[in-house]
Automatic annotation (TrEMBL):
It is found in: Cytoplasm. Keywords: ATP-binding, Cytoplasm, DNA synthesis, Kinase, Metal-binding, Nucleotide-binding, Transferase, Zinc. Pfam families: TK (PF00265). This is Thymidine kinase. One of its GO terms (biological process) is DNA biosynthetic process. Homotetramer. InterPro entries: P-loop_NTPase, Thymidine_kinase. Belongs to the thymidine kinase family. The gene is tdk. SUPFAM superfamilies: Glucocorticoid receptor-like (DNA-binding domain), P-loop containing nucleoside triphosphate hydrolases.
């Protein structure tokens, strides 16, 4: 006897790519989104306007891979632009406020695949924005490692070469930040 299954709505999912600066987060996001495009899936990509390092209308990895995107000021701007997109990419997710959680949850509940990338902690070791909460609601979390610029070991810290003047956020490149391991970052004031 053959049973015919009812057609069910496609299940959405949340994927988070986390890690320090220079760990390849945006590169991995671009790779996943490109694969979705090859599979003929409709892809839409967003980034926060605060990320103005390389291009206003592209997400760009440090190795200069890039993909067109929509630049937005807040997470609430995402929903009105979704249309028939099935895969949603969000780069530098740590810069969005708590509304990103509601938006991502709603997208996944609508059957969308949502892929986010971002730094999960400040150079001080404290959680960065909503990344911890996003990792909690994700079906899939990949935490990428960089290479420590001091000793060559696996690095997970975005070490800030200069001390913060006004808060934790300073948008920058390798002139301001470098990847470091726990030992070389001297977290919590402990010297190696």
């Amino acid at each position: 006897m053959c049973h015919v299954r009812e057609k069910r709505a496609k299940m959405g999912r949340v994927e988070v790519i986390a890690g320090s600066m220079f760990s390849g987060k945006t590169e991995e996001l671009i790779r996943r989104l490109t694969r979705a495009e090859i599979a003929k899936q409709k892809v839409l990509v967003f980034k926060p306007s605060i990320d103005n390092r390389y291009s206003e209308h592209h997400i760009v990895s440090h190795d200069v891979s890039k993909m067109s995107c929509i630049t937005i000021d807040n997470a609430e701007e995402i929903m009105p632009q979704i249309g028939d997109a099935t895969v949603i990419g969000i780069d530098e997710a740590q810069f969005f406020d708590e509304k990103i959680l509601d938006v991502v949850t709603e997208l996944a509940d609508m059957g969308k695949r949502v892929i986010l990338s971002g730094c999960e902690m400040y150079s001080s070791g404290e959680p960065f924005g909503q990344m911890g909460a996003l990792m909690c609601i994700a079906e899939d979390v990949d935490k990428l490692q960089a290479v420590c610029m001091v000793c060559g070991e696996e690095a997970y810290i975005s070490y800030r070469k200069e001390q913060p003047q006004n808060g934790n956020i300073l948008i920058g490149y390798s002139d301001i930040y470098e990847a470091r391991c726990r030992k070389c970052a001297h977290l919590n004031g402990k010297k190696s």
